[in-house]
Amino acid sequence: MTLSYPLRLMCLSLACLFALNFASSIILRCFAARAIRRAEHMEAHRAARFLLALRLVPAAFALFCTAALCVPSYLWLEPASATEQAGAACLIAAALGAALWTVSIARGARAAMRSFRYVRRCRRIGSESGPTPLPILSIPGGGRVVALAGVFRSQLVMSSQVAAALDPAQLDAVVRHELAHHVSRDNLKRLVIALAPGCFLGAYERAWKRFSEWAADDRAAAGDPRRATDLAMALVRVARFEAGALPPALATPLIANNDAELAARVDRLLQDRDAPPSSSATSTWSIVGCAAAFVGIVLLAPAALAWVHGVLERLMN
User: Fold this and answer.
1) Angle at CA 185, nearest 5°, toward 174 and 290?
2) 3-class SS at 233?
3) Peptide bond into 131 cis (omega under 30)
4) Is residue 277's pLDDT more than 50?
């Protein structure tokens, strides 16, 4: 198919977005088990940041390389008046890239809309109580409804039966746990994950959710065994309620419908833990350092654009 200059640029950009995202996703998938094992030796909040960074690498890498290398090399070295045949491989990769990013953007938009509607409905039927560090929106009815919902104006939603079943110390521990999610912007991170395409990276997402819950538990307990016990008792008490409908994707429920995860959290809160080795704290910074080194190489070696343009020509044909 013969394409004009702008259409070739669009086609190559989409093809690069797909190829770079897919290749980096496959590489990360191969190292998922090793990365998660390494995260288990870190503090929970550092492990969550480490796994979130790895989950977002494919999308960030594809966007950066396309914007910083592929598009500039094309605009600099490709004759503006030329028309050129686009090969089948390039067209297929461009179609897959368009589909991949369209699905991700639609998934994020749908999740944001559902979250907005959920919070609006809860505010309509519920009543806010306080004062607490994070006001509670109590909704009528029962069920295991305890979640921080919303992205930019987060709201702690709790069923009236759960609120009545917890004593003041347990309720305070639950509020502190959800406040930790609020401070960490975990719902916003869930939105970013939904918007960032990545193939075969479900293991990173599940591990990030687990470690983000552990990090919120740690912040709620704040090193106080009494607070840790109160939170563990609250988890057990809330787990006795019927699960009911799941909250929207952009919400952090106090308890997921996973008995093994709940047992692990309770055991973790009740046992004395030694501090993990501090050397693991450098893992996230190593990723940032590698990205900075890559940017430096690109800036110091503009001849790389000529090599990239040659790769694009082969991809186009």
Assistant:
1) 130
2) helix
3) yes
4) no
* Host H or E run for residue 251: strand 251-253
Using the predicted structure, report yes or no on whether residue 288 has a pLDDT greater than 70.
no
Residues 6+ positions from 183 with CB-CB distance below 8 Å: 219
| Higher pLDDT, residue 253 or 316 | 253
Which amino acid, one-letter code, is at 224? D
Residues 190-199: pLDDT tens digits? Answer: 999 999 998 8
Amino acid identity, position 272: D
**Residue 68: which residues within 8 A CB-CB, separation 6 or more?**
295, 298
Q: How far apart are CA 122 and CA 137, in angstroms?
A: 8
Number of helices (H) and strands (E) in the chain: give both, helices first. 13, 7
Tokens describing residue 242: 């019927």
pLDDT(87) > 80: no
> Which contacts qualify for 265-271: CB closer than 8 Å, 24 or more apart?
265/213, 265/214, 265/217, 265/232, 265/235, 266/232, 266/235, 266/236, 268/214, 268/217, 269/217, 269/221, 269/228, 269/229, 269/231, 269/232, 269/235, 270/228, 270/229, 270/232
